């Protein structure tokens, strides 16, 4: 993965727009992964799913807690990507009280598939999901890679978390200043 240019995929997002009015003042906005991850130094972490145990109680809150440290170490932005739709990602972020980490929906799994991280979680009723990983992207090129061991879609329930934790990414950023 190191040295690889990130795939250019269009993600379907929702953005607040008061001109829409009503109880749901949001509109659809296509966002290119090149637009999001292609300029500057960004941290992207991907996880199996919104509202799932480890993602909700550990991984996403940990990145939110260390957000300022990651920024101080050189990250321009921190993104959380999951194979969930924009509505689910919005409600999940709201439930977690996120203010800093930007949640990015990969509803169809197109970006995750092109990254080689799309796995089958049918045995849990999830369908296609992302394997847990994090990366540092400098101007659209993967320069730091943190993948959990044992990637599989064989029906195994292993869901390791450690390699892609924010403290590992933070240590890497400190050791590799831009």
Overall geometric form = globular
Poorly predicted ranges: none
Fraction in helix: 25-40%
Q: What CATH architecture would you give?
A: 3-Layer(aba) Sandwich
Give the class-level CATH name: Alpha Beta
The total strand number stands at: 9
SS element count, helices: 6
Largest sheet: 5 strands, mixed
Strand order of the largest sheet: 5-4-3-8-9
What would you report as the Rg, rounded to the nearest angstrom? 16 Å
In CATH terms, the superfamily is Glutaredoxin
How large a portion of the residues is in β-strands, by DSSP E? 25-35%
- CATH topology name: Glutaredoxin
- Multimerization state: single chain
Number of domains: 1
Distance between the termini: 19 Å
Mean pLDDT: 93
Secondary-structure-based class equals alpha/beta
- H and E order: EEHEHHEHEHEEEEH
Note down, in words, how this protein is organized:
With 178 residues, the protein is α/β, with parallel strands linked by helices. The chain has a single domain, classed as 3-Layer(aba) Sandwich (Glutaredoxin), CATH 3.40.30.10. It is 28% helix and 28% strand. It contains 6 helices and 9 strands; from the N terminus they run E-E-H-E-H-H-E-H-E-H-E-E-E-E-H. The protein has helices spanning 33-37, 53-65, 67-72, 86-96, 110-114, 166-175, and strands at 10-16, 26-32, 41-47, 77-82, 102-105, 118-120, 128-130, 133-138, 141-147. The strands form 3 sheets. The protein has a 5-stranded mixed β-sheet. The protein has a two-stranded antiparallel sheet with strand order 1-2. Strand 6 (118-120) and strand 7 form a beta hairpin. The longest helix has 13 residues, at 53-65. It is globular. The model has no long low-confidence stretch (mean pLDDT 93).
């Amino acid at each position: 993965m190191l040295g690889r240019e990130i795939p250019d995929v269009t993600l379907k997002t929702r953005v607040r727009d008061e001109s829409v009015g009503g109880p749901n003042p949001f509109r659809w906005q296509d966002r290119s992964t090149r637009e999001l991850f292609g300029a500057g130094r960004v941290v992207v972490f991907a996880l199996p799913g919104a509202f799932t145990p480890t993602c909700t109680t550990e991984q996403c809150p940990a990145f939110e807690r260390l957000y300022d440290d990651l920024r101080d170490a050189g990250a321009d932005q921190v993104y959380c990507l999951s194979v969930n739709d924009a509505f689910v990602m919005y409600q999940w972020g709201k439930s977690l009280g996120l203010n800093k980490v930007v949640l990015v929906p990969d509803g169809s799994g197109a970006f995750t598939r092109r990254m080689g991280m799309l796995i089958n979680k049918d045995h849990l009723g999830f369908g296609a999901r992302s394997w847990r990983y994090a990366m540092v992207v400098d101007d659209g090129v993967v320069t730091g890679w943190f993948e959990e061991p044992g990637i599989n879609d064989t029906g195994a329930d292993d869901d390791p978390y450690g390699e892609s934790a924010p403290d590992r990414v933070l240590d890497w950023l400190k050791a590799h200043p831009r």
